[in-house]
Each structure stands twice: as structure tokens, then as C-alpha cells.
Amino acid sequence: MYACQDLIKEPLFKLGSADDDNPQGLVDGSEVVQRLRARRPGENSGCEECNYQMFCQGGCYSTSYYAAAKQFDASLSTRTPHCEFYYSSFSRLFPLLAEEGASMLEYIESSPYTVN
Length: 116
Ligand code: SF4
Prior knowledge:
By secondary structure, this protein is mainly alpha-helical. Helices cover about 45% and strands about 0% of the residues. The protein contains 7 helices and no strands. The radius of gyration is 17 Å and the shape is elongated. The chain starts with about 20 loop residues before the first helix and ends in a 6-residue tail after the last helix. About 15% of the residues are buried. Iron/sulfur cluster binds near residues 44 and 56. Iron/sulfur cluster binds near residues 44, 59, 83 and 87.
């Protein structure tokens, strides 16, 4: 078992065997998993003022890990190198969603992470 399917070549993210008597315990007892769970999008360098951070959360973690040259501590606050794609996608998607209901934009604007 690994913390992420994209990181199965990285020993750091190996949690143990799925045949273990308590696989959930392997997950919950992993320091790596605990630190990944503690990541907050507003703490990613470069994401602090992004209106889409609660949806994007800095992008896929595995890309951040490799973007940070496999330095685990640094990777926890590294945004994805695919930021431009994500930002462009969200920028186009949300106005379309707004046509279906203004409540989506109200939700975004009410986010505690939104900078006006
Ligand atoms: S779109 Fe870019 S800046 Fe915004 S949360 Fe995603 S990675 Fe961060």
C-alpha cells in the first residue's frame, strides 16, 4: 500500500501490505499520511491569494513532490507545476457554472481563503 498511486516508486510513501491485519491502521499511523492530511492550500507558495485554492488545493500532490525535487518537507508547500492549466480551467469553468446558479460564486466569495 502506498499513500498515492502516482508515488509507488517512492519508498517514502510505502505504508505496508494490504494483507496486513489492520490496513487502516497503516494509513492512520503513517507520519507521511498525517503530514499530507495536514496540508492546507493557503500554505502553498504561490496559492495564497488564489480564489480557487479550496477547489484546486495546489493541484495533485505527486506533481508537487517531484517539483520539489523529492524534498518531502518542501513539497508540502509546493504548488503543482500545472498551475497555469488549473487556473485557466477554473477561470473558465466557474463562470459557466454561475450561469446555472449564482450560489457557486457566492460560495467562492464567502470562502475564508478568498482575497477580495
Ligand atoms: S490554480 Fe494555481 S495558484 Fe490557484 S490553487 Fe491551484 S495551483 Fe494554486
